[in-house]
Amino acid sequence: MDKVNVLGVKIDKVTVDAAADRILDMLKSGGNHAVYTPNSEIVYMAYKDTDFCCLLNSADMLTADGIGVVYASQILKNPVPERAGGFDIACRVIEKIAETGDRLYLFGGKPDIAEKAAENLKSKYPFINIVGTRNGYFSPEENDGIIADINESGADLVFVCLGAPMQEKWIFENRDRLNCNVMMGIGGSLDVFAGVAERAPQKWQKLGLEWLYRLIKEPKRFWRMLALPKFAFTVLIKGRKYPQEEE
Ligand code: UDP
């Protein structure tokens, strides 16, 4: 089985490296691929909203971003090999496209964040080909202009960093109009590349406590994080009702 069905969301059982390799293959193969990296909050959202669940399952790859989804896969006896978070996958992809020359567009975050992220990435990877940036605050009327800008940039890959579920919905609604091969929804990653947010230290990550670190740093996440115990409870009570075999 190459997927685990967590409350209806079919997550690919991939490592960070395997996910990055698949994205490189998508870049080579053409087409317009969507990659989402759901955490337990997003999976719980999909459990509550069938349309959003279908939207997630229409992706070309879904990876387990968050220790909650990793534990859920273990409870369901169909474990993912490791946590494959959007930021970690993006870092591997960046290392690779800095060699292949694939064109990257950074979309999302507050004004100037995408530009700062581009600047930092260029100083770390001088050969990275960043062809455009756009902040993530826009009116519906501005959307066509954003699509045109991405298409004119010639981007092969777009990091869409609008937060969930906005980024997944934006990719789903616009993917057919975008000429790029891969669109990845990776939340607050541009804030980290820009240096205005930080990842939890490795020790916290290894202990599966990155969520706690983020909660301490950003207490306003408390209300959002209430989805976590609800998610855990629902997986324990209802998780096994979802078929694990491929359909
Ligand atoms: N954001 C955006 N447009 C919006 C709302 C949010 O570009 O209308 C950005 C926000 O600035 C932040 C990211 O989306 O950079 C969301 O980050 P968060 O850490 O909340 O996302 P997560 O990784 O938890 O999905």
Overview of the structural elements:
The chain is of the alpha/beta class. Helices cover 49% and strands 14% of the residues. The chain has 13 helices and 8 strands. The protein has a 6-stranded parallel beta sheet with strand order 4-3-8-7-5-6, with helices on both faces. Strands 1-2 form a two-stranded antiparallel sheet. α1 crosses α5, α2 crosses α3 and α2 packs across α13. The N and C termini lie close together (10 Å). The mean pLDDT is 95. Uridine-5'-diphosphate binds next to α9. Uridine-5'-diphosphate is lined by residues 108-110, 136-137, 161-164, 166, 187-188, 190-191.
Quick structural summary:
By secondary structure, the chain is an alpha/beta fold. Helices cover 49% and strands 14% of the residues.
Straight-line distance between termini: 10 Å
Mean pLDDT: 95
Along the chain, the helix and strand elements come as EEHEHHEHHEHEHEHEHHHHH
Bound molecules: uridine-5'-diphosphate
Structural class: alpha/beta
Residue runs with pLDDT of under 50 for 5 or more positions: none
Beta-strand content bin: 5-15%
Overall form: globular
Cross-sheet strand order for the largest sheet? 4-3-8-7-5-6
Count of strand segments: 8
Helix count equals: 13
Radius of gyration: 17 Å
Largest sheet: 6 strands, parallel
What is the helix fraction of residues, given as a range? Answer: 40-55%
